[in-house]
Amino acid sequence: MAHRINSLADYATKRFRLAGKAYLEEYNPFFVQTDSARQEAQAHGRNFVSFANYDYLGISGHPAVKAAAIGALEEFGVGALASRLVGGERSTHHLFEEKLAAFLGVESVLTLVSGYLTNVTTISHMMNTRDAIFLDELSHNSIISGAKAAAATSHFFHHNDLDHLESLLAQKRDSYRHVLLAVESLYSMDGDIVDLPRLVEIKERYNCWLLVDEAHSIGVLGQDGRGLCEHTGVDPAQIDIIVGTLSKTFASCGGFIAAKKPVADWLRYTLPGFVFSVGLSPVISAAASTALDIIQKDTWRIEKLRHNAELFIELAHEAGLDTGPAIGRGVVPILFADGLETVAASRHLMSHGYYVPPIFQIGVPKNQPRLRFFLSASHREEDIRGVINLLARHPAQPVVAAEPVSAAT
């Protein structure tokens, strides 16, 4: 008779152990209270630099963003109060969505309270039993969860391998009514990008819909920070669904869907994650809207981020560190041989005032642990040189020329 785990606590303990609890027995780099850590370091005359936060353009603490949030709090209060469909909207909702649509060059935008929820609810809502979803194997967990929640059939293609995608479509496209292709623009674990012009050509030739997750590329890619479409010269009208987040360059939280107006109107009345959830808090809308103003006004921030990321990857390569397929924009990983080595490197950096949590087992394959660096326009050159020098001198050296990642959650 098979052994049964009798309690949820026993089950959770077992799953936690399998997820890598042993790595954390001597040093736990997670759930660090970064604001307290920074204050403590400053009080003792030490430095604290985070490469773990995706405030790509350094806007989260901008005085105008804080002032806008405070103003909205005083005028509207804190909460959204209800579902926008059945409880009515705040004026801040429509104003921000129109402004964001104009920035992205799309017809319409719909905002939601969670970036993760945006992918889950959108993909599961769009695709039904006679449909199929073809998704990159390294897609973010929110995309994968959305595909699992859908009644449609899912097919994974090798990471950024559009030849493989084409071969799958050639074999299987005619078996389905509707087909959705789902990719990220700038991949959050590897820092590489999809070949969007070719992907658009494939989706048109095989009569598919295309969803592009621009969570890490808005404010990062393109001369004006408009994302992968601007970076690659693709008309946003050729993308059926663009999803994104407000938690990165918009210095806030929540998600958004950008699409043609008929699509957005349909989702506004039917999308479960929108209809059955509250809208953005006025405080959030005001902060994100002001951040968008700053992005468009302070274009030097985009160039500074680009400079910092390119410097980081240049110095890393000079030091013999493996950055995988990263193109040198907002996200750059340093790959290691095993989880223990990765944790040791993270601990070494933290002891010198650099916060870079390790990533292993959850989010990446077991054989591809890494330190993932989020670069920001607010990082100084001395911060970047300092952290690379520490890694280069660390006794547990990262592996060189590791194979590309082949699977992830």
UniProtKB/TrEMBL annotation:
It holds the Pfam family Aminotran_1_2. Residues 48-388 form the Aminotransferase class I/classII large domain. InterPro entries: Aminotransferase_I/II_large, AON_synthase_class-II, PyrdxlP-dep_Trfase, PyrdxlP-dep_Trfase_major, PyrdxlP-dep_Trfase_small. CDD domains: KBL_like. Gene3D superfamilies: Aspartate Aminotransferase, domain 1, Type I PLP-dependent aspartate aminotransferase-like (Major domain). Its cofactor is pyridoxal 5'-phosphate. Keywords: Transferase. GO terms for molecular function: pyridoxal phosphate binding; transferase activity. Signal peptide: none annotated. This is 8-amino-7-oxononanoate synthase. It comes from Methylovirgula ligni. The lineage of its organism: Bacteria, Pseudomonadati, Pseudomonadota, Alphaproteobacteria, Hyphomicrobiales.
